[in-house]
Amino acid sequence: DYQPKPEHKFTFGLWTVGSSGADQFATTFPVRGPKTPAELVRLLGEVGAYGVNFHDNDLIPLDATPAEAEQIKKDFRAALKETGLVVPMATTNLFSAQIFKDGAFTSNDPKVRAYSIQKAMRGMDLGAEFGAKIYVFWGGREGTETDATKNPLDGLKRFREALNFLCEYNNSQGYGYKFALEAKPNEPRGDIYLPTTGSMLAFIETLDHPEMVGVNPEFAHEHMAGLNFMHAVAQAWDAGKLFHIDLNDQNYARFDQDWRFGQQNWKQAFFLVKFLEDVGYTGSRHFDAHAFRTEDYEGVKDFARGCMRTYLIFKEKARQFNEDKEIQALLAEITPASGEMEKFEGKFTAEKAAALKAFSFDRNAIAARGLKYEKLDQLLTDLMMGIR
Ligand code: GLT
Ligand code: MN
Ligand code: MN
Ligand code: MN
C-alpha cells in the first residue's frame, strides 16, 4: 500500500519542507510564506514521516534572543511530542551568513575559523537536546573561486583540525554523536574541497578519530559530479561508513536541483533503494530535497508524500526483482561458479601463483560467450514499467 511507517525511517529537514521556493533568480520573492519549526513538524506528522532534522538556525534564527530561543524550543518539543516525530540528525549552518563568504573551517581568517568551531559546538549542544545521534558536516563554502587565494593543503589541514577538535568535544560532552561528512563538487563555491564521497572516505582515515566519522552521501551531489551514486554509497557501506544518506534527484551536470526522490532518474533511484534494502541499511532515509517553486504547502505535502511513496515502490520492485525466477536464473547464469578456477582464488601463495602463471587459458573461447546483459536489463525495464 506504499504507506510510510516509522520503521521505514523516512526523515526530512526543516529546511526541505520549509523551503520558501526562492531560487538564485528570485531570492527576495519567496512563493511560500514561512512556517515555524513546530508547524513544519505537524506537516511532517500529517504526511507520515518518522523524523525531522535541522541546522542550528533552521530551529533558532541566528539573532534570536535567549527568551525567543527558549520559546521556539518549547513549541518544537511540544510538536514532536504531539506527532511522535524524532530528531535523528542535526547539523550546523556554516554557509548562509555573510561571515562564511570565504568558507568556515577553511576560511583564511582565523576569527572565522574559530567562530565556525564555536558555532558547531553550540549546534551539537542543540542537537543533543533533542536526541540527535548523527551530526552532519556539509562544507558548503569550504573551497575557492580562484586558487590564487588558498592552498588546498591549508584547506585540508584546517578542515582536519576542526574535525579533530569537534570529535574531542563530542567525547568530552559524552554526546555519542557519529559525524557524517557530506561532499558536493561545487555550488555555492566555484570548487568545494573534498568534492566526492570517495574523497571524504579517504580524508576520514587521516583524522584522529576515524571510527567516529563517516559519510552522508547525497544523490544530487554525486550526480553533479557525473558519478554513479549507488557506487559511492556501496563504497561507503563497504568501509562501514554509511552513517546517513541524502536522497533526492538531479539531472546530471546541472545546478543543484534537489528534486523529489525518484522524480527523474528512476533506474538509479531503483538501484539505490535495492542496494540499501539488500544490505539491510538501518539508518535514516533522509530526503534532502524541496518542492518545486510552483507549489503551495499542499504541493509541499504532495512532494513529501511522493518522496516516500516512490522509495516504497522501488522497495517493492526490488523485492520482485529478487524473487523473479527468470531474472534470478539469468543472474545465476552470468555469475558462474568457480569450477576449476577455485584453485587459483583467494589468498596468495607461491604455489598458487606459479600454477596460475603456468595455466593455459583459451582466451577466444572465454571471450566468445555472450553474457545476456541486454536481456537482463530489458527484464528489469519491463519489471519497472509494471508489465512483468
Ligand atoms: C543544504 C545543502 C544540503 C546539505 C544540508 C546540510 S544544507 O541544503 O544543499 O545538501 O545536506 O547542511
Ligand atoms: Mn543538494
Ligand atoms: Mn541543496
Ligand atoms: Mn544534502
User: DSSP helix count?
Assistant: 15
CA-based gyration radius: 23 Å
| Low-pLDDT sequence parts | none
Name the average pLDDT: 98
The distinct ligands, each listed once, are: 5-thio-alpha-D-glucopyranose, manganese (II) ion
Structural class: alpha/beta
Global geometry: globular
Main sheet makeup: 8 strands, parallel
What does this structure look like?
Strand 9 (246-247), helix 10 (266-279) and strand 10 (285-287) form a beta-alpha-beta unit. The strands form two sheets. This protein has an eight-stranded parallel beta sheet. Helix content is 47%, strand content 9%. The chain is globular and about 80 Å long. 38% of the residues are buried. It has 388 residues and is an alpha/beta fold. It has helices at 14-17, 37-47, 56-59, 66-83, 110-129, 152-173, 197-204, 219-224, 229-238, 266-279, 297-323, 325-334, 350-358, 363-368, 373-384; strands at residues 10-13, 51-55, 89-91, 134-138, 143-144, 178-182, 191-192, 213-215, 246-247, 285-287. Helix 5 packs parallel to helix 6, helix 10 (266-279) crosses helix 11 (297-323) and helix 12 runs antiparallel to helix 15. It contains 15 helices and ten strands. The two termini are 19 Å apart. One manganese (II) ion is lined by residues 218, 220-221, 256, 258, 288.
Nutshell version of this structure?
By secondary structure, this protein is an alpha/beta fold. 47% of the residues lie in helices and 9% in strands.
Fold blueprint:
Layout: E1 10-13, H1 14-17, H2 37-47, E2 51-55, H3 56-59, H4 66-83, E3 89-91, H5 110-129, E4 134-138, E5 143-144, H6 152-173, E6 178-182, E7 191-192, H7 197-204, E8 213-215, H8 219-224, H9 229-238, E9 246-247, H10 266-279, E10 285-287, H11 297-323, H12 325-334, H13 350-358, H14 363-368, H15 373-384
Parallel strand pairs: 1-2, 1-10, 2-3, 3-4, 4-6, 6-8, 9-10
Antiparallel strand pairs: 5-7
The structure holds 5-thio-alpha-D-glucopyranose (GLT) and manganese (II) ion (3 copies).
